[in-house]
Automatic annotation (TrEMBL):
This is Sialate O-acetylesterase. GO terms for biological process: carbohydrate metabolic process. GO terms for molecular function: sialate O-acetylesterase activity. It comes from Arachidicoccus soli. Pfam families: SASA. Keywords: Hydrolase. The keyword Hydrolase applies. Residues 104-350 form the Sialate O-acetylesterase domain. PANTHER family: SIALATE O-ACETYLESTERASE.
Length: 461
């Protein structure tokens, strides 16, 4: 009996000795916390362990206590941007986080076009910044590719400062996005990269969202498995998004959709459901800005065009914005357009205008708004075109009109100030108008600021 009692006491002593404060990897030295916000700090300790937390930007000490399972969480308010600071945690052990910054935090996620780094293709636009990138106050957190069957509370990764070495293996789109934010906001920028090339949007969506929607579940089951990346719902969300949903962010940028072309029928519902699910997990309606997939030779059924239409439909959600890329492609045989500079900058323009209220950044791609039928002519109203439209490299191309028989003819076009009038003498009663609605069509209509008109398809009633 004494022997067992000694073992029990020993186990208790051992358990107490290892029951120390632990933090998730996202809370570590070098991190950027969202400025002027209520941010959460959380972690683990021994059951009912008393913890004191002291950020160096205040003289106050915050006190908390872990619950019976050893978990703890507090919310603190951060002041305006600045740093570097430190944060001390005291319990049975002590942890000091150093080089902590307050600024703007963005999650950068998607598949390979968001994952795309300098080291993939030695892109010249990134190389041009090697000598200066360390001055932009950018801080990177890269989440490694992994999956989980259930939502996780922690993920691997560490914060690093942007320099000529770290930028080479970080998302090029995210880098240029963060660079332009820093140049205009003059605050530290934290970029959390969570990407996996080839992944369909289903894996980034909580499996409960898919499983509770018979329509989405049916289409999920049509995705062909591959050994190269996960295809089952929720797997990357659980491992690469769920662990950071307590981390306060300014918003998200997203570049994905290429791997959903075979199931484009469900993408409009799926994408909006994913955005809503992320916002629910963070418990805030943060901005969600995304990139429309680029022209590429997918197949024979305009699958890419259908995905682009589904992405455009997501703009119905509040605080969303979309970057059009049809003018940034030089080779439609390459699914990875090399121009990530302009993609990142266009995303930043949306954020600077919509989220940070810098109204000088107001040049966005014209989007289809509505139509008016006037006899055999269709007048198409566009947004973001008040200063006029023009075609590049000759007459307007990739704009077609069809009647009841579904036979398409190249449209005769008149570019108005903020609208387009289309017709064809062979179409007496127009029923369909398509612009750039093809896997590889790029279109050549631009606004005065040289932003491309987004592709569209109109079904006339």
């Amino acid at each position: 009996m004494k022997r067992y009692l000694c073992i029990l006491i020993g186990l208790l002593i051992f358990g107490q000795s290892i029951a120390q404060i632990r933090l998730p990897h996202i809370l570590s030295s070098g991190m950027v916390l969202q400025q002027k916000a209520d941010v959460k700090l959380w972690g683990w300790a021994g059951p009912a362990e008393k913890i004191k937390i002291t950020p160096s930007w205040t003289k106050d000490t915050i006190k908390t206590k872990s619950d019976g399972n050893g978990k703890w969480q507090i919310t603190i308010h951060t002041p305006k941007a600045g740093g570097p600071y430190n944060i001390q945690f005291h319990g049975k052990n002590s942890i000091t986080l150093q080089n902590v910054w307050l600024g703007e935090v963005w999650v950068c996620s998607g598949q390979s076009n968001m994952e795309f780094t300098y080291n993939w293709r030695k892109t010249k636009d990134v190389a041009a910044d090697f000598a200066t990138c360390n001055k932009y106050q950018l801080h990177f957190f890269q989440i490694p590719k992994t999956t989980a069957e259930t939502p996780q509370e922690n993920c691997d990764g560490s914060w690093v400062d942007c320099d000529s070495n770290t930028v080479k293996n970080f998302s090029a789109v995210a880098y240029f996005f963060g660079k332009k934010l820093n140049e205009n906001l003059h605050v530290p920028i934290g970029l959390v990269s969570s990407n996996w090339g080839g992944t369909p949007a289903e894996v980034w969506t909580p499996d409960s969202v898919i499983n509770n929607n018979s329509f989405l579940k049916e289409w999920q089951q049509k995705i062909k498995p591959t050994p190269w990346w996960p295809t089952e719902s929720g797997l990357t969300y659980n491992a690469m998004i769920a662990p950071i949903t307590k981390y306060k962010i300014a918003g998200t940028i997203w570049y994905q959709g290429e791997s959903n072309v075979d199931t484009y029928e469900s993408y409009a519902t799926l994408f909006k459901s994913m955005i809503s699910a992320w916002r629910k997990a963070w418990d805030t309606e943060f901005p969600f800005y995304f990139v429309q997939i680029a022209p590429y030779k997918y197949g024979t059924f305009n699958e890419g065009a259908q995905i682009r239409a589904a992405q455009t439909a997501a703009l119905a959600l509040p605080k969303t914005g979309m970057v059009v890329t049809s003018d940034l492609v030089t080779d439609t045989n390459d699914i990875h357009p090399h121009d990530k500079h302009d993609v990142g900058y266009r995303l930043a323009d949306i954020a600077l205008h919509d989220n940070y209220d810098l109204k000088q950044f107001d040049n966005f791609s014209p989007l289809y708004q509505s139509y008016t039928l006037k006899g055999n002519k269709v007048v198409i109203d566009l947004s973001n075109a008040k200063e006029g439209l023009h075609s590049k490299n000759g007459a307007v191309r990739d704009l077609y009109i069809a009647g009841e028989d579904g036979k398409f003819y190249p449209a005769e076009v008149r570019l108005n100030k903020d609208s387009i009038t289309v017709y064809n003498k062979n179409v007496a009663a127009p029923k369909i108008v398509e612009y750039g609605f093809n896997n590889t069509q790029m279109g050549n209509i631009f606004n005065k600021g040289d932003m491309p008109v987004a592709p569209f398809k109109i079904n006339i009633q």
